[in-house]
Write a structure and sequence with these properties.
The structure holds 2 protein chains of 2 kinds. Chain A is mainly β. Chain A is about 0% helix and about 45% strand. Classes of the chains: A mainly beta, B mainly beta.
């Protein structure tokens, strides 16, 4: 079974530029998550989708971050404009159902963003 | 709020040494507890979990026991291997919520031959 795919793996941009990350979850997984992992910290949830609807985006800085999951499969996370403090690894995860203690999240390898 | 505290890393051990990585938590209600592992260049993987007090989670030689009285979930392994070198994250979820994990900062483990 293929895992969660993310691209690109690495991205270097200058502040005030825009960037987009792509995620392809495991086939059949209804729930998709985007996390931000700053160096030396644990992952922090940015947004959770159930199919193509948003379940939780309370931690997403909406003035600069946006995300969509068209057709309930692939997802794109965008930052516009980027700030220095956005330098982090952006992790995508998916799970079969979501919202249950028995549900396991499967993580992709992440995209490492460096903002100069 | 809910939080997880892990011991600072890196933890450096020789192969076949005993491993303990400490994890304590603060939570309202009754959390489920998890250990995730992140190998170099890869995403996080669920290593083990425990959903109620006194439960023991185990996988690949790793164990952790849910201790409600000390609010702890320490990770242990009797004999580490070089291939165990990774970053280990302790996490919790709360029942009745969205089951989004709250993660600790992670503890880097380096095992030398």
């Amino acid at each position: 079974e293929a895992g969660v795919a993310q691209s690109p793996r690495y991205k270097i941009i200058e502040k005030r530029q825009s960037v987009a990350f792509w995620c392809n979850p495991i086939s059949g997984h209804a729930t998709l998550y985007w996390y931000q992992q700053i160096l030396g910290q644990g992952p922090k949830l940015l947004i959770q989708f159930q199919n193509n609807g948003v379940v939780d985006d309370s931690q997403l800085p909406k003035d600069r971050f946006s995300a969509e999951r068209l057709k309930g499969v692939d997802s794109t996370l965008k930052i516009q404009p980027a700030k220095l403090e956005d330098s982090a690894v952006y992790l995508c995860a998916s799970s079969l159902v979501g919202g249950a203690s028995t549900d396991t999240q499967y993580f992709g390898p992440g995209t490492r963003l460096t903002v100069l | 709020g809910d939080s997880v505290t892990q011991m600072e890393g890196p933890v450096t051990l020789s192969e076949e040494a005993f491993l303990t990585i400490n994890c304590t938590y603060t939570a309202t209600g009754y959390p489920s507890l998890f250990w995730y592992v992140q190998y170099p260049g890869e995403g996080l993987q669920l290593l083990l979990k425990a959903t109620k007090a006194d439960d023991k989670g185990s996988n690949k030689g790793f164990e952790a026991t849910y201790r409600k009285e000390t609010t702890s979930f320490h990770l242990e392994k009797g004999s580490v291997q070089v291939s165990d070198s990774a970053v280990y994250f302790c996490a919790l979820t709360l029942s009745g919520g969205s089951y989004i994990p709250t993660f600790g900062r992670g503890t880097s483990l380096i095992v030398h031959p």
